[in-house]
Amino acid sequence: MGVREVAKQTGFCVATVSLALRNSPKISERTRRIVREKANALGYAPNPEVTRLMTQLRSQRASQNQSALGLISLWGPPLPRGAREHINLLIRCLETRALQLGFSLDILRLNEPGMTGRRLHEILLARGIEGVIVLGSPTWQKSIGMDLDPFAHTTLGYSIDINSDRVCEDQYKDMVKVMTKLTGLGYRRPALLLNADLEKRVFHHYSSAFLMYYYHHLKPASPAILVFDEFSPATFKSWMEKERPDALIIGQEPPSFEIILECLGEHRLSAPDDIGIAHLDLLEKMDTVSGIRQNRELLAHTAINRVVSQLYRGERGIADRPTVEFVEGSWIDGNTTRMM
Length: 340
Hints:
Elements lengths: L2 H8 L3 H8 L7 H14 L5 H18 L2 E6 L7 H20 L3 E6 L7 H10 L4 E6 L15 E5 L9 E4 L1 H14 L5 E6 H6 L3 H13 L6 E5 L4 H11 L3 E4 L6 H10 L9 E4 L10 E4 L2 H18 L10 E4 L2 E3 L8
Parallel strand pairs: 1-2, 1-3, 3-4, 4-5, 5-11, 6-7, 6-8, 8-9, 9-10
Antiparallel strand pairs: 10-12
Helix pairs in contact: 1-2, 1-3, 2-3, 5-12, 7-9
């Protein structure tokens, strides 16, 4: 059963059927639905060898023409200090992978003065951009205010609640790694300090894994978590005196790592002698700190690969059943933890 038989049964030409089966936006949704239903009824299945060859041809054509991909961002400028290194590295890695596959990368900022979702949509269409990566937002957002239906797309992280395929850092698994490492060193009372924006942007994966680990491995001890909207040294002091943790797990700024060290110093606590410290997202300058180093190169490569694959398969629009691909970070042994 081939494309020609599907064309004969539906009354459409072979070219229309071929595009419809690749979910091309050049074909109306009604026609695509009719073709898909008839193809399924006839038991049509694409020839994997032909698919491979056509993908290779489209890839070569894209490399020759250097089509553009779009990167939609709700981040600065200016970028928050705590996210500056991470976002700049991620953008460089996205650009590098796009170039390797024969694409340029146009950065489009939704927070620029005068920019709206509708205007951004028109810019993408005018530039002939068919594939986009949604970079995310410094705060949790319900939507980006634009129609993504004409585009192949994927979203980085959970900070924007749209119906989209995603590539995410595996915060749940990373927290389990941190807890496993800390308890393996002999810590029995780890505490978690997070700002509320970060907790929401990671879909509560950090706190979920933290609570799960306490429940299964550290009972009857009760978990100590401080989630704050604005960091208060006084609140932190009271919390530390109440919970008396032997290790502290912290995330992205705010507050900065330096402020945490200052607050601990006021309590006459220093790492690793008096308390262990593990960071969930190490900056390059934190070369002596224990914690998780995120693999943003792999994160970027995975996102670009997914969008380019969608383009080659002719897939556009909102996914009926979105998928998520996770990228794990790596534990780094530093000087802020020790064997207890």
